[in-house]
Write a structure and sequence with these properties.
Blueprint (H helix, E strand, L loop, with lengths): L3 H14 L3 E3 L9 H14 L4 H8 L8 H14 L3 H6 L8 H23 L2 H11 L2 H7 L3 H23 L6 H13 L17 E3 L2 H4 L4 E6 L32 H14 L2 E7 L15 H5 L3 H6 L6 H10 L17 E2 H9 L1 H9 L8 H24 L1 E4 L6 E4 L14 H11 L8 H22 L6 E12 L2 E13 L2 E8 L11 H21 L6 E8 L4 E5 L3 H19 L26
Parallel strand pairs: 1-2, 3-4, 5-9, 10-11
Antiparallel strand pairs: 6-7, 8-9, 9-10, 11-12
């Protein structure tokens, strides 16, 4: 469709007809009921006496307050001229059910707890605190239906909004400021951007604007609303026009708006691989009949269209309803097999298939953790460090992976140069790379920052006169196992005699090789397998792995080994088995000691703590 408004009309029509559809709207996040729930709670924390917001919270399905009791609460609020929150504080003295009283005590406790958190913590912590403490996330994860999956998608989108706001705020981001920001966006007509994943979800009609369809292809495409003044649309001139002489760009000649509309028409037509359909109607409401779009007239299809007036019998719609029923709330959602797999997926599935489902299939939003923030910081420092050394050397040679000629580092000439990089330079890299997310308090963050600088100084002193010959930093790979693709990224690849050494960074303390967990060994074995496969494909002796290492920053030591052929074959078989089980969509939980470390333990009914 040319516009979101027209898309909405067809979404409503398909819904009424019982035809399954996915509306890839580019806006409307703030209008989604679950996001309105979260915003209402935020409003409530900002002002306890925001009675409409509190009433919405009291009506949530996670709180089992009886309708008759809600009526009673509102009655007393109106009779006494007090806010609904004030009535909740005296609810124990009202004639309402014991069940509702218990739920009200829980809600008041949550509001008080999260109000304190809003004053001291981050907006993200408040968001996850509400979703977890209230039981909302557990409620969404308990029933795997399309409605709940959609709601989880919207929550992830909202979490990104929170993250963007916190990142853009130079001082501590406050919940009240975030609430004001959303209010201003809505007052300005912004309904909240949505970034839909069109490959997720059920097989259904995909509804989207032409702008949203750029870069995508589908077997069959229907371009709707092919009538004059809708497509091409009317050109509404800007209220304040800039005189042409003041515009530095070269202005195109002719009707610029019509040229842009014609370009969009071309984009729409080229989205179809097998079949392309145009629809139009004479009556879209209003007093005048609509004329056919000039684009159809110009293309010579006007006469043909006059001969073929499509009338779909109701029997056809009935058949669609039977073969592809609309996915309703409560019905099991379809599991979308990933296009590719990763080591993180294998680890999650091996620990507990239900954990995999929560994290990768349903994609339930989860809290971050300051240890991950610290690990990301140290990885970023290493990346920037070796890029700086690369720029200092400015050696140009063909990339190790053979894609294109790029600047890579040949650090041999830097080995004996004390001025290759100074400690102040490296310290500045650390300061710029520091990620301050999810630390529980300022004291903890300062301690981790102190430890990070200490570890980095030890790393610098250990390598400053003899930097490794690095041949790859954060190198991505695609490995084919059977008919499936496994993707990953290697922290560092060093040149050693006769081949390369693979290095993966860890922020903990080095342990003896015999104590390495199986999943850690398998991670490096996967990297070895990827490089061996790539080396065999390109007949490159430079890609022969000679050593696999975990480098631990806490004591600046490495733990190394090299996989044997039997180890690699065993890993390939294990990966193939896990992928097969993932494809079977059997996510039966395997609770155990690992539950206490699971990101989803708060919402899992099978947990063992």
């Amino acid at each position: 469709a040319r516009t979101n408004d027209l898309s909405e009309i067809f979404a409503g029509g398909l819904k009424d007809a019982g035809v399954p559809y996915v509306w890839a709207a580019s806006r409307g996040l703030y209008k989604k009921p679950i996001i309105m729930d979260v915003l209402s709670y935020f409003n409530l924390l900002d002002n306890y006496h925001e009675s409409p917001s509190l009433y919405r919270i009291l009506n949530l399905p996670i709180f089992k307050i009886k309708t008759a009791d809600l009526v009673e609460l509102n009655y007393w609020a109106n009779r006494r001229g007090r806010s609904l929150y004030k009535i909740l504080e005296i609810a124990d003295g009202l004639e309402i059910s014991d069940q509702s009283k218990e739920e009200i005590r829980k809600i008041v406790g949550l509001i008080q707890k999260h109000s304190q958190l809003a004053r001291e913590g981050t907006i993200a912590n408040v968001f996850f605190g509400f979703m977890e403490d209230s039981g909302y996330l557990k409620y969404l994860g308990g029933k795997d239906n399309q409605e709940n999956r959609d709601n989880i998608f919207y929550l992830n989108q909202f979490a990104k909004k929170v993250k963007q706001f916190e990142t853009a705020t130079t001082t501590r981001a406050r919940l009240s400021d975030f609430v004001r920001r959303i209010e201003m966006e809505q007052e300005a007509g912004d309904e909240g951007a949505l970034d839909m994943d069109l490959e997720a979800g059920p097989e259904a009609v995909k509804i989207m604007t032409i702008h949203k369809a750029k870069g995508l292809e589908f077997p069959y495409v229907f371009i709707v609303g092919m009538v004059d003044k809708r497509f091409p649309s009317i050109n509404f001139r800007d209220p304040i026009q800039i005189p042409d002489p003041l515009v530095r760009e070269i202005l195109p000649s002719g009707d610029v708006h019509l040229q842009e509309e014609r370009r969009l028409f071309y984009v729409a037509c080229t989205r179809a691989r097998e079949g392309l359909f145009f629809t139009s109607a004479e009556d879209y409401g209003g007093s005048r009949r609509k004329k056919l779009s000039r684009f159809l007239i110009e293309s010579g299809m006007e006469k043909q269209l006059e001969k073929e007036v499509l009338r779909v019998p109701t029997a056809a719609l009935d058949q669609i309803r039977k073969t592809q029923p609309l996915i309703m709330a409560g019905e099991k959602a379809e599991f979308k097999i990933p296009r590719h797999f990763s080591f993180s997926q294998f680890v999650a599935f091996s620990k507990c298939p239900l954990q995999y489902k929560f994290q990768f299939a349903i994609r339930i939003p989860k809290r971050g953790h300051y240890t991950f923030s610290f690990g990301q910081t140290m990885h970023k420092v290493m990346y920037d460090l070796f890029h700086l050394l690369q720029n200092k050397e400015k050696a140009v040679q063909k990339d190790l992976f053979g894609f294109k000629t790029v600047e890579t580092q040949n650090l041999a000439s830097l080995q004996n140069k004390k001025d290759s990089i100074s400690w102040p330079e490296l310290k500045k890299i650390f300061e710029n790379a520091w990620i301050d997310d999810w630390y529980p308090n300022e004291k903890t963050q300062k301690e981790y920052k102190r430890q990070g600088l200490k570890q980095l100084k030890e790393f610098y002193d250990k390598h400053k006169n003899c930097w490794p010959k690095v041949r790859g930093i954060e190198k991505a790979f695609r490995l084919k196992i059977g008919e499936d693709i496994v993707i990953g990224r290697i922290d560092r690849i060093d040149e050693v005699e006769g081949g390369v050494a693979i290095v993966d960074y860890k922020t903990g303390s080095a342990r003896e090789l015999k104590y390495l967990a199986r999943e850690n060994k398998e991670q490096l074995l996967l990297y070895q397998l990827a490089l061996q496969e790539l080396g065999a494909k390109d007949f490159s002796p430079l890609l022969v792995p000679k050593n696999l290492s975990f480098y631990y920053f806490e004591n600046n030591q490495a733990v190394s080994f090299l996989g044997k052929d039997k180890d690699l074959e065993k890993l390939k078989s294990r990966i193939a088995e896990i992928i097969s089980r993932i494809k079977s969509a059997d996510f039966t939980p395997t609770p155990g000691f690992q539950c206490k470390y699971c990101d989803f333990k708060e919402i899992c009914e099978y947990r063992k703590l």
